């Protein structure tokens, strides 16, 4: 694991995390832990430096967390590709989330 960045530090309400340029590796991991408050963390990706954001979804919700854990993802890498997580549906959350390149 070469890069691991904490993108939510005690996040208490629905929000989008800081975006990361994804030019290190196409494989990545998202870790989430804390109080979820019924919320969902979803991975999002942007092909154009953050202008357009779309869910990184393969149709099976494999890019979402609703409880402590980790998910592995693969997106294209490049100087304009970015990733972030979005917290939605939470009430009383207190979450820590990291994004890193490589697999768990």
Description:
- There is one protein chain.
- The protein has a domain at about 25-45 and about 55-95.
- It is globular, with a radius of gyration of 13 Å.
- The strands form two sheets. Strands 2, 3, 5, 6, 7 and 9 form a six-stranded antiparallel sheet that branches. Strands 1-10-4-8 form a four-stranded antiparallel sheet, with no helix packed on it.
- The chain is mainly β.
- The model has no long low-confidence stretch (mean pLDDT about 90).
- It is built from no helices and ten strands.
Task: Give a topology summary.
Elements: E1 4-11, E2 15-16, E3 20-21, E4 27-35, E5 40-46, E6 54-55, E7 64-65, E8 69-74, E9 82-88, E10 94-101
Antiparallel strand pairs: 1-10, 2-9, 3-9, 4-8, 4-10, 5-6, 5-7, 5-9
